[in-house]
Design goal:
about 30% helix, VC0802-like, alpha/beta, single chain, Rossmann fold, 4-stranded parallel β-sheet
């Protein structure tokens, strides 16, 4: 799954005009922007299933004074405004713990901005840092992603995209790790939306590069159908086992459908 996720991140950035390097470390993925705009890399991150969030990171040395100097320009100017240093340690324990380093950075900030007050539970200005063995990452505004599983790790599903419900149902199964096999009779504008989330739909080269499935010998294997226009048809695997019919929108209220439309980035004008 990690390898599939890394591949998708690289290609998602590539089709947006950026080049990135993705490196795993301590259960995390670090994405370095090699070429292109930060906005392109961020858009790639937002449209990659399997990620729940990402934090822009600026690296500085493991020095509380250096960290304070790097963030002090962000401090609120109002007297009595509150802040807190939120530190999480990664990797082997070194000289500092997360608590002691947070305390040192907090003291250094107060020395530079004595008008501030500490509020650990609900600060107006949270200073978020990641303490690593050889550097400190100053974290920017969190990028909220869609979560789920990397596309393709749960096999392939047939769909025909004719209306909003078809697309939203297909989006949900993509988020659960399925790759879509899209009927040629689908609406172009809906297929274009799918391509935002799964670049394997763009051309055969990307489809081949991103091909993945649960276990050797299963790449491209189809196990289900999704969409309002396919549920009445009969499909079989190997002539014996009927395909599953997925109906992920059953029971959804209009309120939750509106939230799904927002997350899936569909124009409500598409009927």
């Amino acid at each position: 799954m990690r390898k599939a996720l890394q591949k998708h991140l690289v290609i998602q950035a590539q089709v947006r005009g950026a080049k990135v390097k993705v490196s795993p470390w301590q259960g995390m993925l670090f994405l370095d922007l090699i070429e292109g705009e930060e906005s392109a890399a961020e858009d790639a991150i937002r449209h990659t299933f399997g990620l729940t969030s990402a934090d822009p990171l600026t690296s500085v040395s493991v020095d509380a004074e250096v960290v304070a100097d790097a963030v002090i320009h962000l401090a609120p100017t109002e007297k009595g405004a509150t802040f807190a240093v939120q530190c999480k340690r990664h990797g082997e324990k070194q000289e500092w713990t997360s608590q002691t380093f947070a305390g040192a950075v907090g003291a250094a900030i107060l020395a530079r901005a004595p008008h501030l007050k500490v509020n650990l539970s609900n600060p107006e200005w949270p200073v978020r840092i990641a303490l690593m063995p050889e550097e400190v990452g100053i974290l920017g505004t969190k990028i909220v992603c869609q979560g789920g599983l990397p596309t393709g790790v749960q096999g392939s599903v047939i769909t025909e995209l004719n209306n909003e419900r078809d697309y939203l149902a297909a989006w949900l199964v993509m988020r659960r790790g399925c790759r879509l096999i899209v009927s040629s009779d689908s609406k172009t504008e809906l297929l274009d939306l799918v391509k935002l989330w799964d670049p394997s739909q763009i051309n055969d080269d990307l489809k081949s590069y991103l091909a993945t499935a649960p276990g050797p010998g299963y790449i491209g294997a189809v196990w289900a159908v999704v969409g309002d226009n396919l549920g009445s048809q009969t499909f079989q695997i190997d002539g014996n086992v009927p395909m599953a019919t997925l109906e992920p929108l059953v029971g959804w209220s209009e309120e939750t459908m509106d939230e799904l439309r927002r997350r899936a980035e569909i124009d409500s004008a598409i009927a």
